[in-house]
Amino acid sequence: QTPGFFACRPTRSPSGLVMSFFRSQPHPFYPPSLPLANYHAMTIPAGAIFAVFGASVLLIVGVLVRLSSHLPLASRIIATWLAVTGAIHLVIEGYVVVTPDYYQHPADNYLSEAWKEYTKADSRYASRDSFVISMEAVTAFLVGPLCFVATHGILKNRPWRWVLCLVVSVCQVYGDVLYYGTCFLEGFVHSRPEPLYFWVYFVLLNALWVVIPACVGVHSWRELTRSAGGSRSKGKRS
Predict the structure, then answer these.
(1) Cα 54-59-64 angle, rounded to 5 deg
(2) Which alpha helices (H) appear in the chain, and where do they start and end?
(3) pLDDT over 60 at 56, yes or no
(4) Of 16 and 233, the one with more pLDDT
(5) How far apart are CA 59 and CA 84, in angstroms?
(6) What is the C-alpha to C-alpha distance for residues 166 and 27, in angstroms, rounded to an integer?
(7) First to last CA, the chain
(8) What's the CA gap between 33 and 143, in Å, rounded?
(9) How large is the C-alpha radius of gyration of the chain?
(10) 79/150 Cα distance (integer angstroms)
(11) Separation between Cα atoms, residue 165 and residue 36, nearest integer Å
(12) What integer pLDDT is reported at residue 43 of this predicted model?
């Protein structure tokens, strides 16, 4: 018996077919052959993402400027940097560690949208590269909280503050050098070639976590050396 026309109809409704089409759209990440199922296209523009990020950073800066008004200028700048970078590590980087399917999320999730945008510069977050995710886990859940502890130490003038600042700075520089190094050894195949994604997102933004921690590390070392020299002088006098 030949099946009728209606026996051959699609099993999905028109709305289901439309949703399936949108879910199966090719992703914008590199390499294009990277297998990522159910990619959900971005709807929040990059400008809006950076506006929210900038407003959040300014809020943290405003709070720290007020809390650190009693400190020397260098200490105020370092305390502010540590608070900002601690929030970035814990909230933004922590999110990508615990959310492996962020690229499948709809557009009502700001952090997912932000990571979809940055993944154009480094698709290893979406492919769950073992090094990148392990590094981000350590950065988010160890270095991030340590940044807040170091901020507290500076605000309260704790004797261990510069030791912790030096430790945090070394961790940040070390992690970023490895981050760059693994991409170099792999031929930068994970980044889109446009200048915005490679030179601005990948090179310039990440360079901040080499240059600024290096300066903080040098300042911390000088403070520790000065403190050790003062203690040695007092010991000789006594």
Answers:
(1) 125
(2) 14-23, 46-67, 73-87, 94-98, 110-119, 124-127, 130-138, 144-155, 161-185, 195, 206-237
(3) yes
(4) 233
(5) 10
(6) 40
(7) 109
(8) 34
(9) 24
(10) 8
(11) 39
(12) 87
